[in-house]
Structures are given as structure tokens and as C-alpha cells.
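Work Package 3 (structural annotation) set out to generate three-dimensional models for the target panel prioritized at the project kickoff. During this period the team completed the workflow that converts sequence records into C-alpha cells, so that structures can be stored uniformly alongside our sequence database. As a representative example, we reproduce one entry of 275 residues exactly as it appears in the project archive.
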Amino acid sequence: MNRKELDPEESQRAAFGVELRRLRDERGWTQDELGMRMGCSGTHISAVETGRRSPTPRFARSADRALGTGDRLQRMVRSVRESSLLEGFPEYLVHEARAVEIRLFELGIVPGLLQTPEYAAATAAGEVRRGAITESQAQERLALLAGRQASLRRTPAPLIHVVMDESCVRRIVGGKDVMAAQLDQLLAFAELPSTVLQIAPYDLGERRAFDLPINLLTLPDRSDLAYAESSLQGRMEREARFVRLKMTAYHQLQVEAMSQTASVAMIEELRKGTP
């Protein structure tokens, strides 16, 4: 039988699936047999083991009872839920670290890969004050972001295309001093030989291709991936037809957005209004 082998390092969902399969195999049970003991279908077990379906706390409790594993699987699910990272994002990071081309579109906030440490810290602190994340989760995000930014300094460097909504550069985050340094960082980014920086102006209106942030990756084998997220969830998409549509929309957005020269001029003008 062909079995989909997951990499437990790829995501927390994958790690759970690998562990569930290992425990089931140790007992010599089929997926249907485990499903009968848990009160669900073997198809459901298969979907969790292959990472196609996320385990819920209820599923983990039932699996622990059936397998006699105390609260081992429940603790794995809690660690997923307690993380500040959206589902799907850890998997995306694995691919981002080896992508040869990265295309980003962002709304309201400077993309993480371009943030200064002070800007990133101010953003995380705001979420802590609102109760959206804990202080430890904020530190997790900042440490992860620093690692992502460091990975871009590899050789050869990936080609990075960034289109930001105008709100990203007009919204002051962390006060004027922090924002001034952030604008300087954007100007420095635009000067790099492997980058393209564009602003999607407000007057683009309905011609703007995306209403939510999106990340598009081209991998060394020239295959493409898409990652999109809302405030509640993230989703990695590999299906070629879907990704191709998103890539086409991104190219259309680049055509409609301001040129890099005009974008840099806007940022420089905004920079004059900060200390």
C-alpha cells in the first residue's frame, strides 16, 4: 500500500499525524479499527494522519483514550492552539526558506520580511495590549521573524517582489521615530539588486487584485505555491490551477501599482514628515 509520508518538522499538524500513525502501527490496528474505537470513520483517521484535516481537542481526547496514551495527543493539540502562528504558516516557512522567488502583497502593515525590529516589536506589543496574543507568543513571533529575515541573506539571494497597499506606509506604527526608521528600511530594501518594491495607491480602487494579504513562492524546481490568510486562519495551496490564477492576478497588480521609482518617491516624501 502506498502511504503518504509526512515530515514532522514541516508543521505541527504533520507532527500530530506522524505520531498518531506511529501509535496506531505499534498496536497493529488499521485506520478503520482505530476509528471504531474512537467513534469516527477510518477516512477521518486517514485525513488526520496525512495532514489533510486538523485534529480537534475532542479528537485528541478520544484518540488518547483509545490508544491508552494518557494526554499525550491532547498536549500536542494544545501546543498547536497555544502557538501564535496561524495553521499552515509553519509549513509555508519551510518553503519560504528555500524559495528562489518570493512575491508578497500586504495591507495595513509593512510585510514582516521588511520590518525593523522596533516596528515588529511595536506591532506585537499592540496585539498583547488588545489581548490577541500573550507576551510569550509575542516573543515567539519576534524570534521567528528574525530567523526568517536572516534566511533571506543566503547566497544566491531570492528575488523578492513586494507590493504594499498605500496604507502600509501611511499608517504610523510605534510612533514617529520607529516609523522613520521603518521608512528608511524600505528605501534601503528598494535599492537591493534582487528586490522590487511597489505601492498600490488608494485610487487603484476596485482594480486592486487582492483584498487580503497573499504570499507566492517559486521553488528551485520552478513549481509555485500560494499562501493566503485571514485574521483567523492561513492556507497553503499547491494545486497548479489555483496558484496560476493567483500568480496571474499578482502580475496584473504589479502592472496597476505605482512603479518602483514612483513608490520610492512617495516613501521619501512621507519620510520628510518624520523626525
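The domain at 89-272 is CATH 3.30.870 (Endonuclease; Chain A).
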